Inverse folding.
């Protein structure tokens, strides 16, 4: 390709020479060029610095190869700002993004999840990086994550069953019913967190969640008292069959069944 350019396009040769020799101020203008081959040449310019690379990485039309070249050729000046800019660029490969994300701060990872134009791979990698940090994340940050987190992050926080941020998870507009259902059926559900779901105005009328709550041995008796009168007859019988190992709950169910048979 270079030989063809030399033989047939002397103007392009001059352009490439300019890419290699231009000084700092001229470089900012040249970084706007749409030609990726020309941009590759610019990266060899000895005057290119952090500010130039930050401008270049704001472009959404770069190729994966060019982003990889930026990372390889300028590792010696890669500071936090450049690492963040690389992580945000949509052309950054899955392999490179996984290497960069551990170097980002927790809430930079959250911002990356919601960045316009973020690729599914970038979002998923950022979510995984956040989830991996949850065991060592301070409580205050977990509360903020419960408010700002994606569906997957909020669902993961909910699994911890911590009352101090459980309510915040329930309030999240990104939380899905399926995540709550899985939590209620899981080992970390407690009487307190089950009651939080049962009291929550957004979730307490969901039939699947009500049934899951009534099936949980940790559910406080008050929810049987309040909800059983509205439970269908066949569901009531199913609940009795499942509560054989819990005499107290079975007694409440049988009392409700007896009331109905006496009417």
């Amino acid at each position: 390709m270079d030989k063809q350019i030399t033989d047939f396009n002397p103007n392009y040769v001059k352009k490439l020479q300019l890419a290699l020799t231009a000084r700092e101020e001229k470089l900012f203008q040249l970084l706007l060029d749409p030609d990726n081959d020309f941009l590759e040449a610019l990266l060899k310019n000895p005057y290119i610095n952090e500010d130039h690379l930050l401008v270049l990485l704001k472009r959404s039309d770069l190729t994966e190869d060019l982003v990889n070249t930026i990372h390889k050729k300028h590792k010696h000046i890669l500071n936090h700002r450049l690492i963040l800019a690389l992580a945000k660029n949509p052309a950054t490969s899955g392999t490179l993004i996984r290497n960069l994300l551990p170097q980002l701060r927790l809430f930079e990872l959250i911002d990356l999840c919601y960045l316009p134009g973020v690729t599914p791979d970038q979002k998923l990698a950022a979510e995984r990086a956040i989830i991996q940090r949850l065991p060592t994340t301070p409580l205050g940050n977990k509360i903020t994550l419960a408010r700002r987190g994606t569906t997957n992050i909020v669902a993961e926080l909910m699994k911890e069953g911590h009352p101090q941020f459980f309510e915040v998870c329930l309030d999240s507009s990104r939380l899905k019913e399926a995540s709550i259902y899985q939590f209620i059926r899981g080992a970390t559900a407690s009487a307190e967190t089950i009651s939080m779901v049962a009291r929550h105005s957004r979730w307490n009328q969901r039939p699947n969640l009500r049934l899951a709550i009534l099936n949980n041995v940790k559910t406080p008796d008050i929810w049987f008292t309040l909800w059983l009168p509205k439970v269908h007859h066949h569901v009531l019988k199913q609940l009795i069959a499942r509560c054989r190992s819990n005499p107290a709950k079975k007694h409440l169910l049988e009392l409700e069944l007896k009331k109905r048979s006496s009417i």
